[in-house]
Amino acid sequence: xxxxKEQTQTLHATNHYLYYPDEKDVPTYLxxxxxxxxxLLAPYLVISMLLWGLIWSGIINIPFMDNILIWHVYEMxxxxxxxxxxxxxxxxxxxxxxxxxPLIGKKLKYIVFLWIAGRISFWFIDITxxxxxxxLNLSMLGWLIWxxxxxxxxxxxxxxxxxxxxxxxFILEAWFFASMAGFAQTDAMDILKTALGGHVVLILLAxxxxxxxxxxxxxxxxxxxDIYIARPPLTNLAIFTVITFTxxxxxYPYNSALGWLGxxxxxxxxxxxxxxxxxxxxxxxxxxxxxxSLVFIMIAVGYAFMGWDILSNKGxxxxxxxxxxxxxxxxxxxxxxxxxxxxIHTGRHLTSNIYTHLMVFFMLLASIxxxxxxxxxxxxxxxxxxxxxxxxxxxxxxxKLFFKFLLSPRADGIKG
Length: 416
Description:
Elements: H1 2-14, H2 34-56, H3 68-96, H4 105-123, H5 125-128, H6 130-147, H7 149-153, H8 160-181, H9 188-222, H10 232-251, H11 256-271, H12 287-313, H13 318-321, H14 323-344, H15 354-371, H16 380-406
């Protein structure tokens, strides 16, 4: 029985590596798309958020940036999005579409350089100008859409929604840069708020697939004889409510109807967690089920609090409560993808330990501190600073725990 299980796991692990390119002398950090993406993303998030906390709390300033808030929001949305999508697509698509050749080596290196150039261009946008930043960053997202064309053009349309969501985000990013360049009259921050809705939709779509792989992988490892299915109707309802909220907020940001839509979006997103309630087996005590469910819970709490604030305070604190979505759900989603891929796709079993517990705990603590500022306004500066510092700790722990895996060959000896 043990040998049979081992053979099955090995076969499963090699399914999406059958078409691995025969490129010579590929360094380990370029052996698969997630490796350079996570090696760069974790320290970038630590540096960016620490800087933001120090700047916003008034401790330091960056003289070459005129609009610090725009920089922060854009980088936390589109800046990390392209690195996250690079890892997700280059890892997931060869698995979902057998025959697709993985991106490795020199080609991967050029795309990583493009992402780095995009980050530098936006950091120095007031010096180098909007056009360079627009060209580099739109090129990065545009290339990712082209890379995902097999998903969009798939006759069965099994994963086409991911491609459509990325196209929508490309349009929103182009609109943002048009506003920054003076070609569009819409306020750039309003466009970024709209883009957040698009990001949440993409996260809901991606997490449905992450859940299917991670939870079933976990149950197989634990010998739990059941199957987890992320039901499309629940995700589709949540996406509908998020899109509706986003559209209404853009056109009617202070209308009371938006409050009820916020509550509806929160309820619809929270309902996704009912998928974890399996018919035959109880898995709600499994660490990764708890971790993944917290992504939906934090996003749901954010929309519900925004809805409540619109109905009770006419949206006076809505941007504070929005951080339950961004710092909480959004941050946790990225962290979970990084952890799960960091285990499974380096040839290891999905493992929970004190480090993974602490990563999730610190992310939750930071998000609650940041979102709770309206209730503790006298400590606002301290909460801005300390929540930013604490939010970086999960990614600092990730560097300690996973970088040795990302910089070494797969534990099972398979390429990638």
